[in-house]
Structures are given as C-alpha cells and as structure tokens.
Amino acid sequence: MLVVDDDQDDVLLTGALLRAVERTRFDVDTAATMEEVEAFLAAGPHDVYLVDYGLARITGIDVARRILQAEPHAAVIMLTGYDDYAVDVRAAEVGVVDYLVKGGLDARTLERSIRYAVKQQQAVRALAASEERYAVAMAGAQDGLWDWDLGSDTLYYSERYKAMLGCRGDELGTAPREWLQRIHAEDRPQVQQALRDHLAGRTDHYQSEHRMRGPDGTYRWVLSRGLAVRGPDGRPSRLAGSQSDVTERKRAQLQLEHDALHDALTGLPNRVLFRDRLEHLIGRGLRRVGASAVLVFDLDRFKIVNDSLGHAVGDGLLIEVARRLLEALRPGDTVARVGADEFTILLEELTDYREAERIADRVLEALRDPFGTEDERELYLSGSIGIAMVQLGATPEEVIRDADAAMYRAKAAGTGRHAMFDTALHAAVVNRLELETRLRRGLFAIVDGADGLQIAYQPIVCTADGTLHGFEALARWRDAEGTLTPDQFIPVAEETGLIAALGRFVLREACRQLSEWRRAHGRPDLAMAVNISGRQLLEPSFHLHVEAALRDFGLDPDALRLEITETAAAADSEAVHRALQELHARTGVRAHLDDFGTGAASLTVLRGFPGDALKIDRSFVLAMRGDTGAFQIVKAVVGLAHEMGMSVVAEGVESQWQLDLLRELHCEYVQGFLLSWPLGPEAAGRLLAGSLVAAV
Ligand code: C2E
Ligand code: CA
Ligand code: CA
User: Fold this and answer.
1) Rounded distance between C-alpha atoms, residue 281 and residue 346, angstroms
2) pLDDT confidence of residue 448
3) CB of residue 454 inside a 6 A radius of ligand 1
4) C-alpha dihedral over 317, 323, 326, 328, to 10 degrees?
5) Does ligand 1 come within 6 angstroms of the Cβ of 474?
6) Which ligand is nearest to the CA of 81?
7) Which of 55, 192, 331, 493 is the least crowded, having the fewest Cβ atoms under 10 Å away?
C-alpha cells in the first residue's frame, strides 16, 4: 500500500489504524510529495493507494489522477478531514474507488474499504484484459460475426462480415429475410434445415457451407457456424456465430473434382466419368428411357500425325476433333476422351438403332473438312466408329467392350466407317421393335375386321367315348408380312401391354363362335377354353369383360374355361388364386391349370388352385414311353388331380400309344395332333358336323 500524506501525525494515525486491523497485515510505503509518488509509480504498482485530500501545494485529486493515469485500474481511496460532497463527486469522476472521512474512521471500516477496492479493481482489470484479448483476436481473425436476436428478429453483422461479402456501411440490412435471400437458391433449403435443426435442439451447433451473393451479384462460398442462446425453458432467444470465406478452398476442391473426372487437354469427361454415366443409365432401366448406344470413336492413323508433326500439333488437332464431336452430337450426349486418340460417346433416348447409325454418320462427316494447323497447313483426318446398343442387364464394361470390338471391325473394313456390334443380336433387337409395331398396327385394325389377329380352334376330346368335348382357342397372327406364332407375339404383347386388347378380342370372338356352334349344331354342352395371361387376369376390370362376353352371346358360365399357365400362376400365386376365386364368385367361370409340370413349383401352385382341371404338359405325354419316370409322374398327377376333385386334360397327344396309355390312366380329356390340329373356324365347323373325332 502506498499512503500519500504530508502530515506526519496523520501518517502515524493511519499506520495505527492499519495495525489495528486484525486479519490483514499491510506492507506500507509513504509518500509526501508528487515527486515521491512519481518515484514509486516508476518502481511499480501498489495494490492500493490511500491518498489524503489536503496536501500542501496540490490536492489529492491531482495525485489520484496521476496515479490512475499511470495505472488505469489502480485501487485508489481518498482520505479527507471533512466530508465535502463536491470533492466526493470529483474524486469519483477521476476514478477513485472510495472516499473516507478521517474523523470517526475505525480500523474495520478502513479494512473493508480497502478489501472492496482491491477486489473491485481486480475484477475491472480482469474484464479489461479479456475485452482486450477479444478485441485483438477479432481484429486479427478473418471471420465475420453475426448475431441474430430472435425476439426482435434482427440480425447484427460485424464489419468484417460485411466486408467479406463486399457490402459497405448499411448495404446489408438487419432483416433476416434479406440475409436469406442472399443465399444461393440451391443452397437455401439446406441452410434453412440446418437452422431449424439447431433451433429445435436436434444439433449441438449450427453449421453450413453455402454460397452468398454480394451487392455486385457474385457469389462467395462461406462457412457459417453458430450457437443458440437458450432461456431457462430451453427456448432459443438468439443465435450468434461466425462466418468465414471458403471460396478459394471450395474452388480448389471443385477444380480437383473436375480434374479427376475430365481430360486436361480437351476438357471432355474422362473414362471414369463416362463409365459412371453409363452405369447410371443402365441402373435406371432401359425400358423406361428408350434405346441407348455406346459409340467408340478412334482416329485413323493418328499416331503417324503425332509422330511426324509433333505433340503440340497433335494436341491442337485433338482439341479441334473434340470440338467437332460436340458439335455433331445432341446436347444431352456424353463424349469422353478415354485414350490418346480414342473417344467414347453415350447416346441416350434414341428412337432406334438407326438413329445411332445416323449420329455416327454425322460424327464421321464432321471430320471431313480439313483441319488447319498453326503453320497454315491443311490436314485430313478420319475416324472409325463401333456402335453397341445398350442391352438390359449388361455391365458398362460389356457394352464398351462390344462397341470396341465393332470399332475394330469398322477399321478393318477401311477408314472412315462405322459398324454395329453383333448383327445377329442387333437383328433380334430390330426384329423385336418391328414386331411390336406390327402388333400395334394389327390390333388397331381388329376393330375394322381387317387381318392380323385370328383364332384357331383345337378340339378337346373325351377319352371315354371319343366325343368332342370342346375347343381350345389359340391366337394366330397373320398379316401382309406373314404369320407369327404365339410364342413370338404373346411375350411381346405382354411386355408392351397390348395383351389386354389381344386377350379381350380372343375372349369375345371365342365366345361368339361357341354360341354360334352351339346353336348351329345343337350342342348346348360344347365348351371353349381360352388362354389368359397372368397380367390380363390381374387387371381389375377383367371379370367385367368375362361377364359381358357371356351375357352378350347368351352363354352359361360352364361354357367357358380360362386356362392359366402354371408359370403365370407361380409368378404371383396368391394374387392369381384370389383373382380366380373372385372371378368364379362373380361369374361362375372356372379355370384350368395349363402346362402343368413345367414350372418349378407345380405342387405349390396346385395346392388350393381354384379350378376344375389341370392340363398335363406335352413334354410328359411325349416322354411317357421311353421314360418310366415320366409315366409314373403322369400316373401320379392324374391320381392327384382326381383326389383333389379335378379332371385332367393331356396335351400334345401325337400317337396312338399315348392315347392308349392315357385312357388306361383314366385321363378324362386329350388334345393333340393325333386328334386334330388347331383348325380355322370353317374347318372346325365341318368337324363339328361330324362330331366324332376319327382317331378315338
Ligand atoms: P398352350 O396353351 O399350351 O397351347 C397349346 C399349344 O400346343 C398350341 O401351340 C398348340 O398348337 C400346340 N399343340 C397342340 N397339339 C399339339 C401336339 O400334338 N404336339 C405339339 N408339339 N404341339 C401341339 P400354339 O398355338 O403355338 O400356342 C402356344 C402357346 O401360346 C399356348 O400354349 C398358349 O400358352 C399361348 N397362347 C396361345 N393363344 C393365346 C391367347 O389367346 N392368349 C394367351 N394369353 N396365350 C395364348
Ligand atoms: Ca494532513
Ligand atoms: Ca392353353
């Protein structure tokens, strides 16, 4: 402690008071003049200064001011002989902590005043130090600060924050909406989500990396971090944090990503990116996106050009080739440079393979004009192209390999050509597309009674007495371009959804024919079996069509049998069973289980099958003689069917011995070439007139 007093008596008095303080011992220096005070200040600080107001030539106020000037947070207590309010106020203004009147001052009061003064000045000093550290840190940091008062919904930004965005003065308002609008539209939802998550307490801090727009319209990438300040109820009252400019890092990162996926010379995608896009395309499923093709494009004899003219010229040519390729292609196509002089092209959304060939032609054509070099020379380049159509289920490597193989074939045939991979496969694709067109055309034509879809009727005969039980209606396709077998057109019809129209036609026409025959030949018991595809059966309106067909042609439900193959039933056995049950409940029509024994789950399908007959597949009937296993199976199946209250129709009966065996096994019905081929309507009518099938 430094006691400043020029009155020796007073010094002694103060000393006595200080000594009387019980718990604290003071180490006291004394100064009587300003010079002595200066000397002490120069030597170092004291914890506390006791300054007498009434000094000889100067006032204690001057001394206090001097001390606080040298030591801004000094604990200075003023002692005075008499209580003067004005002096007290002045002392406080100067920064004196306490003002004590000597008369009546006791040891306890003095000690308390000293203790408080020291404590208070310590706190002030600590605060000042922390504020100073903070200010220094802020001035040195690159971060901008922001503080969002949620109550008043205003945002405060530090100068650095504004400078970061290139905003001056009050160019950045305090409305949070303005802040939000400066965020890039693509990033905005993600920022809002991060804010919501943190405010709701789902994250322990808010963090987001996004783009913000400055007044000049350019965007900067920023990293923003913040923390909510919450009230005792956990509700956030404000959100504050920092923001740093990460544009350079982001740019470098994007550049790196770009470089990893692009060719440095031409800027085109590289092999990695190309493969990625192709894989993505295959993953999407080709059916929905139409035909796609991969082209492998290779410059002819480029190595010679490169070696003789130098790499600089070669590079210039490659850049020009890349430019021309892009120009020849459609906007969505991908061209990649995958080797020195090799490019791959991905064509999506093609109408057919011919379009791929047309584009290949265009690419070759684009090379036809001479290329200029820097020394004004003209050069002619050509290339070869291999094309592979992207097939369902193929891997990117397979497609590229196929296109590559085709490219080598094109090259072998001469320069400047293209070739399609595997013409046989290619032909199948073409065929399939043409078939579809044919079916479409034909099905539309049905309405006009034109050619296309027709029906053949194959007799089904009772083994017991050789009488004609009924017919199976079999779809036939015959148009100007020739005939198609059901095995060719039924799968296409199913895949394209044309099966619904086809099936409806067969159903109605077969019913019409049956009703005509029943009347014309006096055979009201004659039955008709119609094949139904699984997809057709599961259509919600299917039963309505059956109902309408029966009603329109005056048929009872027993007249009609619907054949559903075991494979179709197994595909979704529960749904098929349910649909058949419902169909029976609504219309009374029963089902036959077709091609029995050919699937992988025959017994599973048979269990609970809501029908009254099963048709043993012709492969078993054919094998019955040579293969005792097949015979045993047929025998068991017939037994099993009977046990379940079903009858059996044997398909594909071609010889007498088969018929004999089946009759022995008590198989109720037979169908096959031995008895009759599938017949046209007139031939079937003639057979009906005879009514007995010769072979039986
Ligand atoms: P499926 O239902 O098993 O029809 C019997 C097939 O066996 C018919 O072939 C028939 O011509 C043939 N066939 C008849 N007897 C013999 C014989 O003794 N030996 C041999 N080897 N074959 C015989 P098709 O007409 O080519 O029909 C093939 C398949 O097409 C049918 O098999 C059926 O699953 C399907 N199909 C035919 N018409 C339709 C239809 O209108 N709708 C649906 N969804 N499918 C149909
Ligand atoms: Ca004095
Ligand atoms: Ca059938």
Assistant:
1) 10
2) 47
3) no
4) -80
5) yes
6) 2
7) 331
Q: Give residue 605's region: left, alpha or beta (phi > 0; psi -120 to 50).
A: alpha
CB 453 within 8 A of CB 475: yes
Nearest-ligand number for the alpha carbon of 591: 3
What DSSP line would sit under 537-565, residue for residue?
Answer: HTSTTHHHHHHHHHHHTT--GGGEEEEEE
Is 159's pLDDT higher than 70?
A: yes
Average pLDDT score over residue span 175-191: 94
**Burial group, residue 592, by CB count within 10 angstroms (0-12, 13-18, 19+):** buried
Structure tokens at 381: 């380049």
Pair 532, 510: CB distance under 8 Å: no
The 3-state secondary structure of 246-268, one letter per residue? CHHHHHHHHHHHHHHHECCCCCC
Please state the rounded mean pLDDT for residues 554-581. Answer: 93
Q: For residue range 5-23, list pLDDT tens digits in order.
A: 988 888 888 888 888 888 8
Burial class (CB in 10 A: 0-12, 13-18, 19+), 643: exposed
Whether residue 367 contacts residue 382, with contact meaning beta carbons closer than 8 Å, is answered with yes
Residue 233 near ligand 1, beta carbon < 6 Å? no
CB atoms within 10 A of CB 602: 20
Place of tokens 């008596």: 9
Question: Which residue has tokens 């997809």?
Answer: 535
- Under the banding of pLDDT at 50, 70 and 90, the label for residue 693 is low
Our answer on whether the CB atom of 490 is closer than 6 Å to any ligand 1 atom is: yes
* Site of tokens 């198989």: 667
| DSSP secondary structure string for all residues of 480-501 | TTEEE-HHHHHHHHHHHTTHHH
3-state SS class at 594 = strand
The answer to whether the CB of 509 is under 6 A from ligand 1 is no
289: exposed, middle or buried (C-beta count within 10 Å: 0-12, 13-18, 19+)? middle
Q: How far is the CA of 577 from the centre of ligand 3 (A)?
A: 18
Strands 611-616 and 647-650: parallel
Phi, psi angle pair for 307, to nearest 5°: -70, -40
For residue 149, which of 231, 229, 234 has the smallest C-alpha distance? 229
Q: What is the largest CA-CA distance in the chain?
A: 157
Q: Which atom of ligand 1 is nearest to the CA of 499?
A: 44
pTM of the model: 0.48
Q: Which residues contact 6 (CB under 8 A, 6 or more apart)?
A: 32, 33, 52, 55, 56
- In angstroms, the CA 347 to CA 365 distance is 17
56 Cα–ligand 2 center, Å: 8
Q: How far apart are the first and last CA of the chain?
A: 137
CB atoms within 10 A of CB 94: 19
